Amino acid sequence: MLILVARPDKHTVKSISYTFALVFLVLAMPLKKKTQPGAWLDHLVERAPIYSLQVDSVQRWMEDLRHMTEVECMCVLQAKPIGVEEDGQQGELIVTSGVGAGDHVARNNLQTLLRRALVVSTELGKMFQRLEKGRWQRVHSTAVRANCHVRSLVHEYGAARSTPPEMQKYEKSLLEKCMELTNITERCLHTDDEFFLKSMREAIHEILTDVSDSFSNMIDMALANEIRLLIKQIDSSDSVHTIGSAISNLLSLTQDGPQLCSIIAKEGAVVALFKICRQDRFRELYAHALRTVASICCVEEGINQLDKVDGILCLADILTDESSVEAARAEAAAVVAQITSPHHTSTQHLASFLESMHDIVTALIKLCESASCGEVFLLASAALANITFFDSMACEILLQLNAIHILLQACRDRQRVDTPYSKDQVVTILANLSVLEQCASEVLQDQGIERLLLLLGEKPSSGSPSEGAACERVQQKAAVTLARLSREPDVAQTAIQLKAVPRLIELCRSPTERNNSDSVLVACLAALRRLAAGCPDSIEAADHQQLIKPRLVDSFLLCSNMEESFV
């Protein structure tokens, strides 16, 4: 239950009291069965002075009030700013929990620190905006609030933890600058001199920038201190519960952005987590620890730490260990997918990866085959898709392991491949395998052309932008795969028999079919031209004149500017 405690002024009290008295009398009075809309107020005015109460009206009011919304009261509440701090300014609305304020005190220090930091950052952001607009009263009130929040944060953190000496210097400097900011903004309230205010605006902007930088540095140091304590728990404790709790806190922190992931990596979290993953007594924590590692490795510092502790060898051991539970192997696959992502600029860690690549690829394709759900398949296939980008040897290994048959079979299983994201990984692997000559025969053998044509028709089931983008990638890569495989006459003939040409033409001519994607258009034009080269009679003269005969860029411009016909 959420309790809203307001601090109204005397006029608000009078208004609310009148409204509640009105509600009280209305609820206490029985109305006629057939009351016309709007007539209840007249009925109240006529009957209220002479009506004698027959029920406990206070009790009735208390029972019914929870179901009512009084417009005037709501307007009063909405006009009050909501503050999340218990030491809010006069006139603010205080939010507390129905279970009592003690829960806030008992909260984890990390969450409290992040919550306080968010409040201060929000106030500083508001101050920048109001300073630009010259709203001096608001600038000063925001400076006062920010000053209070910073002092409260420093006090609370100092009470909960022994503050490191280097952090104390930042605290002192920050508090002095906050006080200076409050004083200088107060001076701007008592003058209308434009020249003075302009000079003050520049000075305040400079001080505010210093405050923001100092505050960020102080928070980073405080977070690093808290993270060190969590890592110490992981390193020194023998309790599964204690270690699991510390890992959960680290995982929660990684969700707050790459900056925190960098701090976590620099403090040695990856080293501590792999230490856990190398001890059999902590097997039940493997999945949890590896999920945290995958999150940390979204930044280069995390990948560098993983490389230093031979984390890839540990991942290979978990993936190839048949006694490892599926959840642990799936999270190991997630780490592989993360560190092999094409988005990373550093590739030094891939040298050690190549040494274990055969074992890892073998384990991943087996995981795709045995996956019990879509999430496990997605993680394993995403890792394989990334691996096929940076080494052709991986593609050869996959062909030897009958990967095409396994992946195409998975596409027929809704339990494993149930989203455009999973299909995106599958078609990415097929597109990268299709550069190998022996791939075509295996695709034909497993009815892969039929599957590619189905993928060309992939459409989002919702209005989600990410799902729409995934469908575009599926269509594009399916067309690329078809174009590459169609260099083989047997594949081209099969594709034509399965009516690939009409579908490709539809994608070229209809922007909505390809979700207005230029990349899908280019891929479909390339596939059409490859099919036309092998079987010229498969395309009608008008389509040949517009889509095949001109230069590729001219056909692209024609189709990208084409208005869809609804005739």
UniProtKB/TrEMBL annotation:
Residues 53-99 form the Protein inscuteable homologue LGN-binding domain. Residues 116-567 form the Protein inscuteable homologue C-terminal domain. GO terms for cellular component: apical cortex. One of its GO terms (molecular function) is cytoskeletal anchor activity. It comes from the Eukaryota. One of its GO terms (biological process) is apical protein localization. InterPro entries: ARM-like, ARM-type_fold, Armadillo, Insc_C, INSC_LBD, INSC_LBD_sf, Inscuteable. This is INSC spindle orientation adaptor protein. It comes from Sander lucioperca (Pike-perch). The lineage of its organism: Eukaryota, Metazoa, Chordata, Craniata, Vertebrata.
